[in-house]
Protein 1
Amino acid sequence: MRAEAPTGLSAFPREGKSLRCGSFKLRDLADRFGTPLYVYSMDFVRERFRQVESAFASADPLLAYSVKANGNLALLNRLAALGSGADIVSGGELFRAVKAGVTPGKILFAGVGKTDEELKAGLDARIYSFNVETIDELHRLDDFATELGARAPFGVRINPDIQAPTPHQYTRTGHAETKFGLPVPVAVGLYRWAKTRPHLRPRGIDVHIGSEIVDPVPYKKALRQVLEVVHLLKKEDIHLEYVDIGGGFGIGDGSGGMDMGALSDELLSVFQGSGLRMILEPGRFLVAEAGVLLTSVRAVKRSGDHVFVVTDAGMNDLLRPSHYRSHHPVEAAVVQKDRKVEVVDVVGPVCETGDFLALDRSMPLPRAGEVLAVGNVGAYGFSMASNYNARPRPAEVLVDGDEVLLVRERESFEDLIRGEVIP
Ligand code: LLP
């Protein structure tokens, strides 16, 4: 049996019986907008953004928010207003970021398989830099920049061959056996070649070792390697402007995430004096704990000694528990009196045994019609949602100060068939 995580809903404190977001009761939001519903606290995101920014203040940091964590336009727009840039991985994310008002000069384009169209779109938009992950990509970038008469800014993503301590193998990206980045000798070769190409501008260097990391040490190891490359290139008269240390700062499932002060102490101790600017690409750290998924209990059923709490949110709305076995706190939006505490599986309505939000969870037994809040889902919640089982994706609500804003409508059945034809 697994114990309840200590807390995971700090942006959603309980006052009296009710979980709240700012001055709004979550239950009221569920009644007003329906369930399943994603609710985000912008105040929490702002606080996190400032926390990271101030920890790295002496390194002239650019925080390039990782759009894949949560690409909601309103959220991006408000992050941009705080001065955030964007780490993007597709033409779609470029489109989203620019639409939301992110300054193109603060956008970095990552990704192992960028298409010709994506490279051209990035050049057209005049983004800050391409974080290049293959030799072929840099050659194509050179071709397109030459055609346009432009100079393409780039950094090479280094594969530092570091085993990052992440809770799931799928979120480790820093060891040699992954598809990410290039080995140092290959990267150095690319910078040397680029020096001979008038339409390429070596601007920086990049590394991203994985996700959900709460230990600063592997970041320091990666940074050391990257700085060695920077110094080597300097001797060859190739002068870089940025070091992008990537993202991946964990929240520790609500039980104490990455200590930003400790991380900045470790990193700045080797970075100080380099004359470079540091880029960080936090996703989860800024938004995960700022989001809850509200879901209504549809039924409670027993099978043998198993108790199933069946909710109206499933793996299509929140994939993480099923895909990574990730732990998300689940709490009643309103505490009810005299409920027996039982060990339950909280499961969705999707036709898969792997469709669950929480397994073996000890909680006061809810009843049909009541609302549960699933915590730590502001990152990789909606952004990984799908229409599996022909289920419209949930609505999204942003609570910003005293305002509650519907920032994405619930999908309709018509949305489900948009673009389909019966020839
Ligand atoms: N930069 C790069 C190059 C990345 O690949 C990622 C995440 C980030 C930054 C942001 O990482 P974060 O700070 O959010 O951990 N779907 C998974 C996470 C996959 C992350 C992929 N890359 C999940 O639900 O945990």
Protein 2
Amino acid sequence: MNKEKHTASFLKSVTLNSRAWSIWWNLCPGLFLSSLLHSASAALSLYTAVWLSARMITELAGSPSPSGIIGLALAQVLSAASFSLLNAVLERFKTFYSDSASCLYHRIYMDKLFSMDFALLDSQDTYSLYSQIIQNDTWSSLGIHETVSLFESFTAACARILGGIILTAPLFISPVPPGSGNLSLLNHPLCACFLIGLMLLIALFSSFCADKSQGYWIRYASKTRFGNRMADFYISAAKDRKRALDMRIYNQSEAITKLYMEGNTPFGPSSEIARCAKGPMGIWAALSQSVSVVLTVIVYLFVCLKAWAGAFGLGSTVLYTAAIANLFLGISQLSGALGRMAANGRFLEMAFGFLDIPNIMYQGTLTTEKRSDGQYEIEFRNVSFCYPGTQDYALRHINMKFPIGSRLAIVGANGSGKTTFIKLLCRLYDPTEGEILLNGIDIRKYRYSDYIGLFSVVFQDFRLFSLPLGENIAGSCLFDSFKASSCLEKAGFSRQKALFPHGLSAFLYRDLDGCGAELSLGEAQKTAIARALYKDAPFMILDEPTAALDPISEAEIYEKFGTITRGKTAVCISHRLSSCIFCDEVAVFDKGNLVQQGSHEQLLKSPQGKYYELWHAQAQYYYPENA
Ligand code: ADP
């Protein structure tokens, strides 16, 4: 029963491994060729040296002729020199491709992350699975990465085995001459079969021991998951300049020391893994090595007995012992690689489990007409929404139309559903109930890339990239400098321009360039607004656009609000209700419901309304007489 299960999972590992290889083949075919060539050349150089040494010994042990010896010595020197040259070149060739594979490895996941539905990307299950995959890779390259080194091990083992078989075949067929007494038994076919069987058995046992040792390592991959996450977090936090202040003030170095030094933490000196490394893990590894020595002794004995009985001379004795030792090494390398492949199956399953997560959002094919008049009308029709995995409605029965070219302010207390409303508008999620229409057609029916192209958004927690200013604004390495500068001006960035001696080519932040400009939150926010302007989409969405700005810059943004949003339909979420004055309409959210809609003046006229309450709650600090 167990055996069946083991076989099935082994077969599955083979299938998964082949799938990983086919991914590598598409990404980096040179990986396979370089590995094959390197393994073949390494085995050829090894066996050529063994063969030439054996020939030399045969020559010396017989009646040596100076020309024969010189010829062999020359051949030895020349082959050693040319093979070491060739091996060095091929080693570089192989290293180049395995290094490229390490970079390309991330692309496999990047492509998936970029093409995944946002709702899936945002889910905790996806995050946990992905971080587990990355940790397995960091822990011991387990998963798709491991299949690169597995291929290298397979090719090296096969080349070694093939060379060993070719050189050792005569050992079993060279007969002991008649009249050798009991040693004639060595001619019996059973004797060769017994030796070959024993070799295989010991090789398998040796690799079984190696697997056992390796198995502990793999087992701890899941046990140390949390510790690994903590270590990753602290390592990146320690390098992060933005966190340096908090790390120091709240004395996080103590927590790091605790993580690495205390016995009960995963990496402490008396942790479970440390104890295992000193105990069973080491014992199995030692056992694996020592059984190899037993085999070498048996093989030496067999070869020496045959030589003693006169089956072959001294040179062949050297040849066979060396070739058999290498053949055995190849076999145990191969069975080790097979064991690693079986163990890696579980991690490949996880990796493909992630890569195979299907997108669930309907992908339409309609194109959004490229209207020069920007006449796009959006309507929310009875839209309700629950975040995946939750029962609570973040939005309930929302009905709203965006009049073309109007400026809409969205206000409401924290958690009232404002950002969720924007996320649905941008189709990061699909409504749980109801529909959103663009010019009368359900937005699900449009091609997603076309639809998302209609929006320029500055999210509340926007991120700029550590790239040159111009590239940040354009979202591309190719940008129109004039347009980028004018967007910066419009966003009120002109006063900060002195910060950038290299203009639009100046790097932001110091992650990639030591001289990169560190932006204040306000400067970053203006840059993000410039980025949204550069996109020049018909809808402009600003989520808390002035949250990080000082009062002067804030006033400046609102003064320019008309210019920033000219010709566009604008949606602006803000806690500063004063921003509503600049908008044509205000939508008031409360606990996921749209409770009021109208102009600022109209809404202020109803003292029972939520807007009135919010407005006066803020106004009392500015105009205490109004409180
Ligand atoms: P606002 O922008 O008005 O502060 P949000 O739209 O961010 O409010 O949140 C509305 C509700 O949805 C809140 O109760 C919040 O906790 C919940 N919520 C927001 N994001 C998520 C999420 N990714 N998963 C589950 N619930 C969420």
Protein 3
Amino acid sequence: MDEGEHTSQAGESEDSGGETDDPFTTDGDLDDPPSSSTDHQTDPDRESIDSTGSDITVGTDDGTGSDPDTDGGTGGDVDTEVTTDTDVDVGSGGRDRSTPDVDFDGVVLDDEDENQGLFDDLLSGEPIFENKEVLRPSYTPHELPHRNDQINRMATILVSALRGETPSNILIYGKTGTGKTASAKFVSQELESTSQKYDVPCEVEYINCEVTDTQYRVLAQLANTFIEKNQQVIADRLDRCRELRSEATDDPGVLATTEFATLDDLDARIDELETDAEEMEEVPMTGWPTDRVYSTFFEAVDYHERVVVIMLDEIDKLVEKSGDDTLYNLSRMNSELEKSRISIMGISNDLKFTDFLDPRVKSSLGEEEIVFPPYDANQLRDILQHRADIAFKEEALTDDVIPLCAAFAAQEHGDARRALDLLRTAGELAERSQAEIVGEKHVRQAQDKIELDRVVEVVRTLPTQSKIVLFAVILLEKNGVHNINTGEVFNIYKRLCEEIDADVLTQRRVTDLISELDMLGIVNAVVVSKGRYGRTKEMGLSVPVEETEAVLLSDSRLGDIENAQPFVQARFDN
Ligand code: ADP
Ligand code: MG
């Protein structure tokens, strides 16, 4: 029910259907209609499909879902087995949806009925989720089991800020999904709310350096945040001064208890504040020299007394992209600031990122280091259980669901994000197949789907040359070649390059590209000794052939290869 509200997930560019947010159905549903519509022969059908846009998915799935040719004939269609299965389930599982096509013709032809029940059946089942939001990465949990030590260490260091002292800089390390961001945000919320409670000027600024990835942008974002806050402070102060001013006009005696000896002093102060407000100029998103951005930021922070904790999440991305200048500048600011103090909290997924830092930056930033170790399967179970209690209806999960999600994610370097993704996807699959309860089967389907999504994304973003090499491997595999060797790949690769007018790399470079594909887990290559003929690599595909080929062919250059079969065949005929 709440599905329509979600924003699209990263990497899901096609996610425009209002009725679903999940890449899984989205892929299938958005891709299916065009192929289905060509399968419909009658014009009225086609018209109704075209005019109803994305809403047709359920209807056409029911009508054509059982047709095995539908998927085979679509070339670039990146359908998954899982998708097909589930779509079939959705179709056959709905008891009272025997005539969906008729309903859809009605959508267009019959204006009298208000609705044709497109969503009714989907809504009618008992929902599995109580609150799916809780399983999304955007949700910040209030409880973080198994992170007490790390959270307490952060708090112990940052408490100085509440005493008006400068906390040591902190560097946090850990692989993705180990709870770094969630813990840091939790601590910063606590810190800010405590500072308000005791009325101590302490602020936390969070920056995600994967998004804000240059020195200019980091400094500009900080400068503008502080300028905005300063404007608020100035506005408050002006209000108070003006109020005092009007009281003092009636009774100059009120000034006696204030810092202003005379009305002129008060007027001067008002002038001063008004000038400050006017002069605070926001930093534009581009265009200024960096020193100007830096000094604007500097003045903005130092406008009044405060301790600022700057949280730089994904700090390794910033250093990778733009070097360590930002960190250098930030880390030596305290010696020049007069009223305020800053403390830096860096969060890194890359354990070795300090190797690239200037030694001065390294020692300043790493005054305190906190490591977030991967979760083991038991810890992941606890984390999932906490979330599942809020996310799902009672009794919506069989007993093996959480342990299985935990076990799969533990294999993925103890990644809690992966564990939560699995649980959410399993729930969605169960929901789509109109199952009453989420079971082991759904978790396994979810695992396959997530893995396939990953492969699709990796393959889609490969450089063209790697795609051609991979395509050569696929063609060989499809022709039943086992233990494919580098020479065979290279021969097909050359022909493919000629076919699409691409540069032909040397066999050595192609071997390197194969090693890269191996590292990405797309092919599995082993070096085999051929005695006095030297050594060669033998490989096989470690990803599903059909889907991978479909992704490759969706690339406009590779899509130009009309029919590769003849020259692959020619190789075998020789
Ligand atoms: P990182 O920043 O280390 O990559 P996150 O903090 O973003 O990891 O955590 C990934 C996901 O797992 C988030 O949805 C987060 O809420 C959740 N998570 C991580 N650790 C815990 C925990 N100890 N308890 C509950 N949820 C957690
Ligand atoms: Mg993070």
